[in-house]
Amino acid sequence: MIILVADDENDIRDLIKISLEENGYTVLTAQNGKEAWDILRTQEVHLAILDVMMPVMDGFNLIRKIREQSTVPVIFLTARTSEMDKVLGLGLGADDYLAKPFSIAELVARVGAQLRRNNEYISPKGKAATSITYGNLTIDKEKCCAFKDGKPIELGAKEYKLLLHFVEHPERVFTKRQLYHAVWGDEYYFDDNTVMVHISRIRNRIEDDAQNPKYLKTIRGIGYKLHYTGEEP
Predict the structure, then answer these.
(1) Contacts of residue 86, Cβ cutoff 8 Å, sequence gap at least 6
(2) In contact, 68 and 156? CB cutoff 8 Å
(3) CA 65 → CA 6, 34, 112, 145, 206, distances in Å?
(4) Can you give the pLDDT at residue 116?
(5) DSSP character for 230?
(6) Domains of the chain
(7) Structure confidence by residue, pLDDT tens digits, 148-192
(8) pLDDT in tens, 204-218
(9) Among 29, 61, 62, 208, which residue has the least CB neighbours within 10 Å?
């Protein structure tokens, strides 16, 4: 497993790197958010440990970029310990939030827990169906990708999760808050604009005409639902 550690403090980076390597992990390091982003875009990473207060690009801006494209687990390790910072970090898509000063043994344990949880999510066990089809859309749950008429659809991580949620619950109406909690997984933080932006992006990718959608319907005053009104191929 490959882990990225991004922190502008050399001593902390080195401590975490040595400890994780002693537990069998491969560790990549970055001293600011931009370096971390460059690594994430060009190399396979299974989990990222990020500081918040980094030069060039801070951790909050970095996770915004990450969550547009990836579901990689993210643990914030930071001296920013206020409740508001923690709520913000988790709301932006972090999977865990650990305050400095920290126990290295606890951090290693949390890394292991996140990797196990993520592996269970992307590698479902048993004989459950790994793909779902609705209308001309197909979701491959094992590979975390979507297709329309057999052709791949380019989706960011949150867009994929939103579309999967709709396909798993066709015809059901969801409020923006329900969608946010289902996909971003935070009961305390809610941003309706984030939901609307992601819905718009999904429509641009799955609809022939985003202004006259055949899949994602807006239910005025309530929210959205997946309801296919086109002709079957």
Answers:
(1) 97
(2) yes
(3) 15, 11, 24, 19, 22
(4) 82
(5) S
(6) 2-122 (3.40.50.2300), 131-226 (1.10.10.10)
(7) 888 899 888 889 999 999 998 888 899 998 898 888 876 556 777
(8) 999 988 888 889 999
(9) 208
